[in-house]
Amino acid sequence: MREIKFAKYIGRVEGIPAMKKLYSQHHIFIMVSKLETFGLVYLEAMSQGLLVVHTAGQGIDVYLKNRSFAIPVNPNSERDVTNAIERILNNYEIASREARKVPKSFLWDEIANSYFKIYKL
Question: Residue 75: pLDDT above 70?
């Protein structure tokens, strides 16, 4: 494990119990990958109340636009990431409650009900 000031590189984490334990020990999830089709890991983190910093213009960005708990950034800009963390910290309590609500709309039952309503018309 490599430590850089306030951040730790943990490496690959496998299994739901390990992920939940890790999420419960943190407040912000940052993944600024350069190519991400959707990123279920963002939803997993939000389901545990973590606020996310993600790459602007990637798959999840469409669903999380203008949300206090999900800040899009340029993955090549340290300043963008720093500013996103500051924004999250300034609005942490409200944003954390809101973050927990989003993954529920991605549950398979919810998606199936949405399609059912569309086709029932």
Answer: yes
User: Do residues 102 and 49 lie in contact, with contact meaning Cβ atoms separated by under 8 Å?
Assistant: no
Q: What is the pLDDT of residues 81-110, one digit of tens each?
A: 999 988 888 888 888 888 777 767 777 787
- What's the one-letter identity of residue 88? I
Global pTM reads: 0.75
Among 3.40.50.880, 3.40.190.10, 3.40.50.2000, 3.40.50.920, name the CATH number for the domain at 2-120. Answer: 3.40.50.2000
| DSSP string over 32-100 | --S--S--HHHHHHHHTT-EEEEETTSTTHHHHTTBTTEEEE-TT-HHHHHHHHHHHHHTHHHHHHHHH
